[in-house]
Write a structure and sequence with these properties.
The complex is a heterodimer. Chain A is an alpha/beta fold. Chain A contains eight helices and seven strands. Chain B has three domains: 183 residues, Aconitase, domain 3; 91 residues, 3-Layer(aba) Sandwich (Aconitase, Domain 2), CATH 3.40.1060.10; 194 residues, Aconitase, domain 3 (2-Layer Sandwich), CATH 3.30.499.10. Chain B is globular. Classes of the chains: A alpha/beta, B alpha/beta. Bound molecules: iron/sulfur cluster.
Chain lengths: 219, 493
Amino acid sequence: MKAFTTHTGVAAPLLRRNIDTDAIIPSREMKRVSKLGLGEGLFAAWRYTMPGGREANPAFVLNQPAYANTSIVLSGENFGCGSSREHAVWALVEYGIRAIIAESFGAIFHTNCIRNGVLPVVLPARDIRALADFVQQDPQRHCLTIDLEQMQVTGEGGQHCVFSLDEGAREMLLQGLDPIAQTLQDREAIAQFEQARATAHPWAFRDYAGSAVSAEFKP
Amino acid sequence: MSAVAPVAGAASPTTLFDKLWQAHEVRLLPGGDSLIYIDRIFLHERTGSIALQSLESAGYPVRDPQRVFCTMDHIVDTFPGRGDKTLMPSGTDFIVATRAAANKSGVQLFDVDHPDQGIAHVISPEQGIALPGLTLVCPDSHTCSLGAVGALAWGIGSSEAEHALATNTLRVRKPRTMRVTVRGQLKPGVTAKDLILHLISAYGADGGSGYAVEFAGSAIEALGVEARLTLCNMAVEFSAFTGLIAPDAITEAYFKGRDHAPSADDWDQAADYWRSLRSDVDAVFDREIILDADAIQPMVTWGTSPEHAVPVSGCAPDPHNFPSAGAESAQKALDYQGIAPGQVMAELAIDAAFIGSCTNSRISDLRLAASILRGKKIAPGVAGVVVPGSRRVKRQAEAEGLHKIFIESGFEWRDSGCSMCFYAGGETFGPGKRVVSSTNRNFEGRQGPGTRTHLASPATVAASAIAGCIRAAVPEENMYTGADAAALQEAIG
Ligand code: SF4
């Protein structure tokens, strides 16, 4: 996984509430059993003039030349709510988004971001409004810098916002760790826990349908 | 470090959620996440295929395939006589890839032609795969439905699914706890669907953000398991980590004799444990919400978020009355839905009626809709589609003759799956079409580009189909409410 330490880039305001993962990547754009090839489908319903088409809708913020090379999205409450599809994050990554600044996030989406090296930053509405006002004046020049070590968002107009992130998530992002490899270091503890659980609740480990009984544990 | 034997209760008053959490916490990790033990994993062809493939290419085996289940629900067609071919462009690839990956890893597969195939969240309780006291995860956001039986169940992404498959654990930050107590009793004709839409409209689509939400109170205790599943299904639409309901005698009766549920001696041991799974009397929640059931009316959504819900007898709002941030979103929603501010909901003509999805496609939902449609015809020009949530539901409905009621009224009777609950490039009612739907999401484009979705209960969908416009069902004596089997007999005759 790509590590996230600090990033400076163009930020685009998409200040709606409840931007759901269907909007981030419509299901019809998830065409293959793959994590790739999704960037084109990002925000497809808003970005293109016709469903399934590829003609750019000039009114959509990411299509405006001023927002070329956007790598940060500014949004409202509950960004990434709805479907658990990780394709939403894969599409953002492929498009080049490194961070999303919003008032709050859908829980599954938030974890999906962390697992893919995208930084979800939670800030209050007034900070997001102020950052949006700043970038809108001259998006290409008024870049934002997000520093995960310091947990702050800054802009050259004197903007300075401090955010927080769970320590575990922060470590994962800073170091670009593989969580499965991390957890497998606890393999023994998991096996012991499982044995104890199987002793206390044997029913939880039996399959009564008969075809597959896993009462005996493989440590 | 040593593993701790799971304990049923603790000394200090504890919530149901905390009991489930403690029983599965392998250890607290540095950084504040917990390593949570996962008992069951469910997959489907939309997101499970990629998880299994990606896991394999990373070189990690599935740790315990016997406790992993996979179904074909999202992409599979729901036309009778279907096969691997689907209307969704490239849909067959997902089906074929999932089958190959599932068979290779040895997980239990409910394939396209399996007699017990169905929507993941419908078949997992139906077969006793989801049980009280277990943790169950699935790369699908409506996994929270299973909290209805007292399981700790939540939706995850594909990477998390890979983690669960490889380790039988997840690294999770413990959510806060909320209790929603619903006092009194729901009025006749008011369903669990109306209750959850009422809650979300009152507290916002992010009202449950950061919380595991336990539903409690007399109105909840009176609900059957299927209605409880409807309620918890939409916990994610409230942005909750999950929904939960304490298992009780109704839950026990529901599971007794189900395929994967404990049998013989194990039953008593399991049931004893399940009875300890309730919030202690003095347990403290981080947040409490209290609702009066008799104030709740049949609900319908007007906009593009589940929070955009009003009583069926009400009107769409005027965005000018919204706080500034909400006003723009509300106006966009009205524009998408093609309705004016202040629109009287019950005057809105519909093009289609859809009964299905993991929210409302169980046998009680079909009985309820059929009790309203019996002997009636749907309005000319309205397309009606009923999609049972599983093949078992389908068989049961056919045994009761419900399919005849649907067909005679003008509804199409389908095979089981997610169908038009969402749009993947295949079937849709079409752009600009107004659909009253028993599903859970009314997002822009959810049922197809430009399609306008109004979420409601199966009763409201059935009544609206007959009226040709949005309409609540008039509670009649013989209207089946899911309360008991005797009522059903009367309703269906
Ligand atoms: S029925 Fe709809 S909401 Fe439920 S799992 Fe299928 S697509 Fe998702």
